[in-house]
## 1
Amino acid sequence: NGTLCTAGGQANGTVCTAGGQANGTVCTDGGQANGTVCTDGGQANGTVCTAGGQANGTVCTDGGQANGTVCTAGGQANGTVCTDGGQANGAVCTAGGQANGAVCTAGGQANGTVCTAGGQANGTVCTAGGQANGTVCTDGGQANGAVCTAGGQANGTVCTAGGQANRTVCTAGGQANGTVCTAGGQANGTVCTAGGAGGAVATGAHSNGAGKGLTRSKLDRNVGQVTGTDCAAAGGVSAGGAGAVGELSGAAIGQGSPTPCMLLPAPSKQGLIF
């Protein structure tokens, strides 16, 4: 700290040439020290510990624990870098470890972090098979408020293949709510281009779409006239329509879940009488 150290050590207000422990001093071998370098198996506070030791506010190069420090192999660290298999909080963990507010490169868990393979992440990027919240997940994972590119689930997100999505685009075989679904999916309040179970919410009063009125107005009872669109082929979309004007509007009362279309006789477009 504010010092020169020539080989692997740290020093506090001091020069340390190789290993050693010192408090404002040079210490060449073993021992414990505060604000110093410790070269072998010792404990240190505010210091470097090069092998198997514990350290606080320090660098630990092998298998040790560290707080506010770098730990290079298999150790635990808080606010630190951990390069192999360790746990870290507010740190980088490069392999198989857990991290909070950090980078985790392989198979680890992370919160507010990047996780590159098979891990879980919150507010992060997860590149393979992991779960993510508020994140990008590229393969088979789940995501919330994120992009999921293959077979995953997403909320408020884009899902490109076979996944489920809410308020999202789903390009193949997925389900979507308030979204576009391009093939074979189901949609609510959405456009569905092939084989969908419902259609867009009708905007007209007393139409044959999802906005059918429930008021049993005189027009509905006595005439039953509707101007909504006929159902499309292959179980497609009923777009609704303007509808006959009743005492109360279907749009105001009848909006909600879509219902499967029913083929209406053409060209009369005779409506259902409630």
## 2
Amino acid sequence: MKILIDNNLPFWWAAKLRKDGLEASHVIDCGLADRPDDDVRQAFKSEPILLISRDSDFWNDCPAGWSLIWVCIHNPRLADLQSRIYDTIRQAIRNAKPGVRCLVTDDGIIRFGEGAVSGAQDVP
């Protein structure tokens, strides 16, 4: 599954994921820098992708066939993005399946739906 990093997350995440052997792009790589969410949805509407975003709009309106990792961390420090949060994202990617949505918080990952990270909490 192709991984797409949204505008509100570091560009270097895509390069680091590619270095780890994953198919990853940042929206900047796709010519969608600073474009509205609807443009991103349209560009990938027929592709099964794993979107990593800090944007709650995708949580509420994630296209069918997409997986989503929503990074719900307010004003993260650069050091956190470089280490702890990135490592948590890698764990979520390893456990992602089509159609699964995961929420990454300061405390880790909360499971939503089937196939998310084992040991995570179910949220009613």
## 3
Amino acid sequence: MRSSWGTNLHMTKLVSWNARGLCNLDAQGSVKSLLKLSKANVVMIQETKVRDCIDGIGSLVFPNGWRWECVPSMGLSGG
């Protein structure tokens, strides 16, 4: 697709999900399904109550080729 300025425009698909219980294996499976079905370029998952298992979640949920970052929450107010 070309814009009126002659530059190429690319559609970016963004998914944002306020998740609960990401330490649960079923929830992790739901995130994997979301990644496959949405074919999104950017996925943002907010989970304020995960502390201990965040490193494991990233490696289990996000397949090879995905880069993920974590911002720790401050209390219950989020990151």
## 4
Amino acid sequence: MLNGNSYMGSIDNLYQSISVLDRSKYLRSSYVMDMLLKTPLAHHFKISNQMLPIDEVSAVGYACDSKKNYGEVVSGSLVSSNGGSYSTNLRSCIHLEYLEPQSSIGEAYNNYGGRGFTKKPSLYMVTDDLVVTPGSSTSAITVLTKLRIPLSDVMECSINIGQNECLSILKASLISSSALTNGLSQFLTKFT
């Protein structure tokens, strides 16, 4: 990620160590090197406003082939376009479609929908230890009461989360259980 410039020391060191390996001596192929250095997201998980430059793997096509004997299915197989066996008669294969692929950018992939990750615009609350729950003003007050924080100690502030903030939260989440506090503290100094 970020070609070894994430500013997370050990992660950058790991990236640099892998990138200088002799591919022909230590790895099976250049493809393996690319998988290690440019690990993609699973298909349907990339979003339109992706903060970090991470690619997405291509979709895998699936088809179903079955053999019938006197109208009764006696054997069947599922074949895929990414290395699965297509040794069966392709004319007897039926292309399978995803019923509801996800899309965070709102477009429909087919007749079944796939318009985003949530059913409607939603508000979520993220706690310091990165627990995500449905949010509302009531749930926020409940959390503050549970933590014994008086409302007079609460200050609302807005922050835009970009690539730097995202990397800072990621770094803090790897070393702390207070990812938001530690990850965003340098960006919130003007509010304190």
